[in-house]
Write a structure and sequence with these properties.
Strand content: 5-15%
CATH superfamily of the largest domain: NAD(P)-binding Rossmann-like Domain
CATH architecture of the largest domain: 3-Layer(aba) Sandwich
Number of strands: 12
Bound molecules: nicotinamide-adenine-dinucleotide
Pfam families: 2-Hacid_dh, 2-Hacid_dh_C
Number of helices: 11
Family: Belongs to the D-isomer specific 2-hydroxyacid dehydrogenase family.
Shape: globular
InterPro entries: D-isomer_2_OHA_DH_cat_dom (IPR006139), D-isomer_DH_CS (IPR029753), D-isomer_DH_CS1 (IPR029752), D-isomer_DH_NAD-bd (IPR006140), D-LDH-like (IPR058205), NAD(P)-bd_dom_sf (IPR036291)
Largest sheet: 7 strands, parallel
CATH topology of the largest domain: Rossmann fold
Keywords: NAD, Oxidoreductase
Low-confidence stretches: none
Protein name: D-lactate dehydrogenase
CATH class of the largest domain: Alpha Beta
Mean pLDDT: 96
Structural class: alpha/beta
């Protein structure tokens, strides 16, 4: 395998990643150039002369971008994210570009997921508004405890199973759905079909990748099987839930509360400052006004430890593929 110094171009680099990139490049003897830009058809030509490219999740790696990367000699593309729905992985495989994704400790997203549950159950959003305007009344702020609820966890991969283990400390009943049930979790959760999870859960949290089969898994039809007043939590990808269904569910009171770290069509909104725009996304703005809807800007991953692991993984994966022809997170 090749032993020369590999040149890597890093896109979407935030200030808080720069020192970590420099350290990883030094440790791995790689030459890394850092750019704030996203990778798309307008920026792809900057990849000339680089064998490896790394991005975050706002870049759009379409077949056209992949074709151009191939022409420019790029062999490896790593995303410093767990999710990879922004990359046409099948097309990349077809033309021979290796795609790698990141892994990092699941606690960052799992903790955030449980925080969103508690936040909506304890009506934190309206409580904070009232505090800020000298209104200390309790009317309408009565909450519920997790212990009194049945929580359904859809998807028991790295994050889903961490949510289950953490939730077990709260004393709630936990239902779980995965394509293949996991024996090691059976002491914490009862594995049931997705249909049964939908009908029995008071709170449902989703931990699946966005694929053709998971897109809009929360839709008018599936929502109709859920309990009246169901609480939905999404820290995976916005497109798992049809936003029109979410609006209908909140307006009709079918949905009791929403905790959303991700939102359909969030690209080019989240992780940007849109402070000078009147409105960034009409449906997002409409949903945001409800006291029982808590939204955050795709930040469940955003902890000190996760950022270090994401950057390190992004560089290390490319270097490992270049030198040894293998990496544990090749897609
Ligand atoms: P994972 O790969 O460990 O687990 C995914 C689980 O989904 C697996 O158990 C898999 O069997 C299951 N699955 C896949 N396709 C399915 C389908 N069609 N039907 C049913 N089950 C299916 O992934 P993870 O580390 O747990 O991450 C889950 C998702 O969380 C990621 O794909 C990503 O989109 C999202 N995420 C969000 C953030 C954030 O900051 N909000 C950060 C990291 C990851």
């Amino acid at each position: 395998m090749e032993q020369d110094t590999i040149r890597i171009l890093a896109f979407e680099v935030r200030d808080d990643e720069k020192d970590i990139f420099k350290k990883a490049a030094g440790d791995l003897a790689a030459e890394v150039t850092l750019l704030p830009d996203i990778l798309n058809l307008d920026t792809v030509d900057q990849c000339a002369g680089y064998a490896g490219v790394t991005t975050l999740g706002m870049s759009r790696i379409s077949p056209e971008v992949l074709d151009r990367l191939k022409e420019l000699g790029v062999k490896y593309l790593s995303t410093r994210t767990i999710g990879y729905n922004h990359i046409d992985v099948n097309y990349a495989k077809k033309i021979g570009i290796h795609i790698l994704n990141a892994e990092y400790a699941p606690e960052s997203v799992a903790d955030f997921t449980i925080m969103l549950m508690l936040l909506v159950l304890r009506k934190y959003k309206p409580a904070v508004y009232r505090q800020n305007v000298n209104d200390y009344s309790l009317n309408g702020l009565r909450g519920r405890t997790l212990k009194s609820m049945t929580v359904g966890v859809v998807g028991t991969g790295q994050i889903g199973q961490t949510v289950i283990r953490s939730l077990s400390g709260f004393g709630c009943r936990i239902l779980a759905y995965n394509r293949t049930p996991r024996q090691e979790l059976e002491e914490y959760a009862e594995f049931v079909s997705l249909e049964e999870l939908y009908t029995r859960s008071d709170v449902i949290t989703f931990h699946l990748p966005l694929t053709e089969s998971t897109k809009y898994m929360v839709n008018r039809e599936t929502l109709s099987h859920m309990k009246d007043g169901v609480i939905l939590i999404n820290t995976s990808r916005g497109e798992l839930m049809d936003r029109k269904t979410l609006i209908h569910g909140i307006e009709s009171l079918k949905i009791g509360a929403l905790g959303l770290d991700v939102f359909e069509d969030e690209r080019s909104i989240y992780h940007e400052s849109r402070i000078n725009d009147i409105i960034a996304n009409r449906d997002m703005a409409y949903l945001r006004q409800f006291p029982n809807v808590a939204m955050t800007q795709h930040m469940a991953f955003y902890t000190e430890s996760a950022i270090e692991e994401m950057v390190d993984c992004g560089i290390r994966g490319i270097v490992s593929m270049h030198r040894d022809g293998t990496w544990k997170k090749e897609l």
